[in-house]
Sequence to fold (102 residues):
Amino acid sequence: MIRHRLLKVLACSLLCLSVGCSDYQGISPTAYQYAKALYNVTNRRRSEKLDQVSDLIAASQQEGQITEQEVEWLERIIEDARDGDWQTAQKMARRMMSDQVQ
Fold:
């Protein structure tokens, strides 16, 4: 019985690895729009827009349009950009979007 469960877990793990696990699957349409905005901001390195997007994210969270998890992901992108790691921030925003179409 235990061996059967272990085999199932192993098979699921291998399937997940071969297909590719997504970190951001199933985000809300609003969070997707913010990911697009952040991709644009990070692509152009427009640091003056980061606070504006962050404020919009906070307002959307208060209105219940995005989840706390989505806020954490989006704010992480903003933090990386603020720290000057524009490339990582851009990659994270792009990944957030691309994970929705897989």
In short: The radius of gyration is 17 Å. Residues 9-20 have pLDDT under 50 and may be disordered.
